[in-house]
Design goal:
The chain is an alpha+beta fold. The chain folds into two domains: 1-30, no CATH class; 32-81. The protein is built from three helices and two strands; from the N terminus they run αββαα. It has helices at residues 2-7, 33-69, 73-90; strands spanning 10-15, 18-23. A hairpin with a 2-residue loop joins β1 (10-15) and β2. It starts with a helix and ends with a helix. 0% of the residues are buried.
């Protein structure tokens, strides 16, 4: 940490016995207004895509829940056999 402070990448602030290291903000490159606007527009597009995908996921989960609540083919076949036996025993 001290080496990074010597290089100017970090700043050290001492508070009694404790030393707090902070990123030297002067080493962060400045962003132009145009580039910032471009990044904001990209963020907006990504948020819209995220919302769309989240809605699709909700629909798919709902569909899956509906499918899992339906009886399987094997269960239906077993129920049909039981009902056929019940009808044949009744007659």
């Amino acid at each position: 940490m001290d080496a990074l402070t010597d290089e100017g990448l970090l700043q050290a602030k001492e508070f009694g016995k404790a030393t707090v290291y902070l990123l030297n903000q002067q080493t962060i490159p400045q962003v132009s207004g145009e580039e910032l606007d471009k990044l904001k527009e990209e963020e907006k597009k990504i948020k819209q895509e995220h919302t769309k995908i989240s809605e699709e996921l909700k629909e798919m989960n709902s569909y899956l829940k509906n499918l899992t609540n339906q009886p399987s083919n094997e269960q239906l076949e077993a129920d049909i056999l039981k009902l056929k036996e019940a009808v044949s025993n009744f007659c």
